[in-house]
Amino acid sequence: MDNYTGKDFYCDIALAGKVELDVVFEDDHVLAFHHTKPFWPVHIVVIPKKHIPSFTDLGEHEPEQLVNIMMVVQHITREVENEYGAARVLTNLGEYQDSKHLHFHVNFGVPKC
């Protein structure tokens, strides 16, 4: 999986069970897990289980789909902030979005360059 070059790592690999994930949260609609190649010391990814292209392109999905995922992002971010004193929430769009599946990075710390 180190050389994955597809457009949707989350559907093709993560949700398909082709890689072991350290799950932080899971329900019928959302999956959150520690990033498989973390960029920050704390790096959690939150994704919808249904394919949604991006934050600005919901595809065929209703905007209400964002409510559930944002509640999970908020919960996880609050936990990271409480434990470490700070947190960031990031989503990439357009050319910045390597995997064309809506996802949020919840992170803390200095990048692991």
UniProtKB/TrEMBL annotation:
Citing just one GO molecular function, the answer is: hydrolase activity
Q: What are the record keywords, sorted? A: Hydrolase
Pfam families linked to this entry: HIT
Q: Which InterPro entries match?
A: Histidine_triad_HIT, HIT-like, HIT-like_sf
HIT domain: which residues? 9-113
Q: Which PROSITE patterns match?
A: HIT_2
User: Which residues are named in the active-site annotation?
Assistant: H103 (tele-amp-histidine intermediate)
What positions carry the motif Histidine triad motif?
101-105
Q: Which PANTHER family match?
A: HISTIDINE TRIAD HIT PROTEIN
Q: What is this protein called?
A: HIT family hydrolase
The upper taxonomy is: Bacteria, Pseudomonadati, Pseudomonadota, Gammaproteobacteria, Alteromonadales
